[in-house]
Structures are given as C-alpha cells and as structure tokens.
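Backbone shape codes:
===
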Amino acid sequence: MNIKLIASDMDGTLLQNGNQNITAKILEIIEALHEKGILFVAASGRQYANLYRLFESVSKDIAFICENGALVMYQDKILSKTSMNKQIAFKIIEDIRSKDGCEVQISGENTTYLIPKSESYINHYKNVLKNNYKIIQDPADIPEDIIKVSVYEEAGIMENSGTYFINKWQDKVKCTVSGFGWLDFVSPNVNKGTALTHLLKKLSITPEEVMAFGDNYNDLEMLSLVKYGYVMNNAVDDIKNRYSYRSNLVEETLTDFFELNIK
C-alpha cells in the first residue's frame, strides 16, 4: 500500500466540536508524514489566509484546497483558481441580503467581503473565524474576481433557508452545505474532488495513492475520488452509509495506519 497524499477537511473533521486551532499533535503528524514523502493537503471551505495561519509552521510542506475547491495553493503558488460569473454572484448576494436571518460572505483570493446585518456576525468573523475580511456597502466595490459566495444562517441553514436557496440556484451554480450554518455557492464544476484531481495531475499521483477524510456534503466528491475515503463517525448517516472507511479522529487513524511514534 503506497500512500503518497492525504487530504483532510477541516471543520467537523480535523477540527472537531467547534475547535478553531490545530493541535501540536496534528502538526507533528504532518511533519512525520512529510519525512515519509507523503503530502498533506488541507481541503476546506475556508479562505487561504485562514488556512495558512492555522498551518503556518508546516505551510511550505503542505498544499491547500481552499474555498471548497475554487482555489488550490501549493508552496505559495496558485495551481488553480475558478471564478464565478460575476452577474450570477451579484444576484445570489442580493437574494441572501433580502432574506431575514441570513448573512452574506463573498470570497476573493485572499480577502472575504462582508455586508453585515449584525454586530454578532462581524464578531464571529473577527474573533472566531479570524479571517481576512473587509466590510463593504456594495458588491460592485469588490476589486477582484469572486470565487465563492456563502450564506450564513446562525439558526442552521438546512433547518431554515437552505432548501429555498438550493432550489433557486442549483441550476446555475454548485450549491453545497459546508457546515451547520453555511451554504456555499461556487462555479458549477468546482468542488474539492475536481480541485484534488487537478493537484494530483500536477504531482503525478493517482487516486489509488490517496487517503481523504471528510464529514459533510462538500466532501463527497473528494471522498469518492480516492481509494481510501474516510468519513468521520460524527457525520450524518446519509454520508456515512456511502463509504466503508470510518474515523473517529484523523490523528488517531493516521498514527495507527502509518505506525507513527507520536504521543
């Protein structure tokens, strides 16, 4: 069994129970894997700047699939970037802003743009997510391409407005639930699976040489692509029933699988 690359989702997978920090053990595991010639890939709906900060001490040795696959970074270089149709993005933004209880997030390459309705949303960004962000008044003020638009509903996106947004926009963009409160919109062919495929081609690695971990619907294409697709035990049954490999903690699975001597 020759594993050359390991891709892991972040929230709900590598980061559990709302945790916002990478543990020292995970960083040790990444370093040990790197010494074995195995590349670790952080695959997330998060922005590159956020992921880079989390993995800063090992950032030169790993790759990043950001914004649910819209941006792939490796050694500070863009390997792929897929922007949304700006007019469609603007219409989705307007739709989100008009919906009570919903906040909008607009992703550029390194900056997230907000048109906040509440102070609590700004606080969530500043003190919890710690993203690079800028508050704007009008989407037309954004000075770069839009690679992702997201709707955040604190009360739970699928319990409330998720079905409305999916039904309205799924024929124009890729709509993916990426967390309890989050629904993401990207270009139609963008997902973590297509992003990982692009990365594997660049590195001459086959899907049979890859292990991946995930817990949510935005991980499905990535988990289905690779030979060893691990779904987290905390995932909903609909996701768990699709895959035969399970994991309770990513670090435990990797330590046992590769027989790493890490406490």
